[in-house]
Amino acid sequence: MAYEQPAKYRRVLLKLSGEALLGGQDFGINPAIVNRIAKEVATIHDWGVEVAVVVGGGNIFRGAAAATEGMDRATADYMGMLATVMNGLALQDAIEKLGTQTRVMTGIEMDKIAEPFIRRRAERHLEKGRVVILVAGTGNPYFTTDTAAALRGIELGADVLLKATKVNGVYTGDPMLEPAAQLFRTLPYREALNREVQVMDATALSLLKDNHLPLVVFNLAPGNIERVVRGEPIGTLIADNVQPVFAGVD
Asked: Which pTM does this prediction carry?
């Protein structure tokens, strides 16, 4: 399919946190937010971009948080994986109502509602123009959905991992606590790891670095998924072959 817009990437892995689906709510799934994200995913798909999505479950249940309250960590993590499945099904419903085919693939077998993740099958779905929604993380406790996103992005040969967050990118400090904190436009992986940036855990960053998969961290404001896929300079690009550059600096 010929691109209708100048998309920079052929295949992307989009990482959505569960919290991104909250909107102004304290808990659960906000249909208006899901529909907005679905429209942007459908738009970039219509440009000819192959799209895989990893979704978290923090809007429903956070395994790590439950473990700190005394729950067995493995049990808590499995519960968190089930929360991601609910989010993935909601996203599937919204995208398919726009006329775009999807497949939900899961790290935990549950054949009544989703396919098991098999790399070559997932690649085939992407090649056939289906949006692949990846849920239940890696299927293993003790691994975050960030790590699952990094792993799946590498396995599927994505050109870039796009992490949509509540912040504008990676800063020199916490912008909520340090008003003078500066936003990086580009940052090498080694420095991101040394700085222990909070936007993605170290295991995920190390996987991306070792396998040379670029990461863009950006704010999930309306229109930003489309903007970042076009290659507009928003958020922070973390990659091997870049120098630390601050936003607004030529």
From this structure: 0.94
Instruction: Give the rounded distance of the alpha carbon of 19 from its chain centre.
Output: 12
In a domain, 219, yes or no: yes
Does 143 reside within a domain? yes
Which is nearest to 41 in space by CA: 116, 85, 93, 107?
Answer: 93
Which domain CATH number covers 182?
Answer: 3.40.1160.10
| Dihedral sign, Cα of residue 211, residue 214, residue 219, residue 223 | negative
Residue with tokens 């003078």: 180
Domain hosting 140: range is 11-246
In this predicted model, what pLDDT tens digit does every residue of 19-63 receive, in sequence order?
Answer: 999 988 889 999 999 999 999 999 999 999 999 999 999 999 987
Q: Stretch 219-231: mean pLDDT, rounded?
A: 96
Q: Give me the sign of the Cα torsion angle 88, 94, 96, 98.
A: negative
Q: Which residue from 85, 120, 77 is spatially nearest to 104, judged by alpha carbons?
A: 85
**CA 71, CA 76: separation in Å to the nearest integer?**
6
Q: Could you give the CA distance from residue 39 to residue 53 in angstroms, rounded to a whole number?
A: 14
**CB-CB contact of 178 with 198 (8 Å):** no
Counted domains in the chain: 1
The rounded distance, in Å, linking the Cα atoms of 225 and 4 is 16
Is 3 part of a structural domain of the chain? no
**Residue 1 binned pLDDT confidence (cut-offs 50, 70, 90):** very low
Q: Per the domain annotation, does 4 fall within a domain?
A: no
pLDDT exceeds 60 at position 3: no
